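W.,

You were right to be curious about this one. When I first looked at the sequence I had no strong expectations either way, so I just let the prediction run and decided to look at it fresh. Below is the sequence, 170 residues in total, followed by the output.
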Amino acid sequence: MYAGLIKFLKRYIKSSTLFKYGFTLSPMYRRTTGKILAVSEDLHRVSLKIPLSLKNKNYVGSIFGGSLFAATDPIYMIQLIQILGENYVVWDKETTIKFKKPAFKDAYAVFIFDSNEIEDIKSRVQLEKEINFIKKLKITDKEKVVTFSEVQKTIYVADKNFYKSKKKKN
């Protein structure tokens, strides 16, 4: 449903605007309490804030670990789907989160794909047809001095035609 709506809206609205406000308006994402602050025009950089609030405060007054995880969980996958386009299949495959310090104030994260990384992904998929790669992310305070947690995501990317033929065999 969301993919079809985004495809239609891209005719009229910039991808970066759709990314930002799509997350902001999505009921499933709103429940995470995460807020997309900025999205670069090429979608290679997404900035996120997880404000400390009554909706995500745990028993001891810090941001609930599940909120830190949920707010960061879908970003890399959807970011990469939008960057790579329709000829690729992208899935989150595995995530680990290490909690370093309690978040007693707003938390922030920046999701970055550089151009070389995107070209490497495309080249590897062209050769191997499907790949797994790891992205790491730090959830910090606004000044990036205190790290509240570290997230490591394994992301699967495949050539769409290869993925469809592989799926038929199973």
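Here's what jumped out at me. The radius of gyration is 17 Å. And, maybe more interesting for your project: Residues 49 and 80 are 20 Å apart (CA to CA).

Coffee later to discuss?

I.
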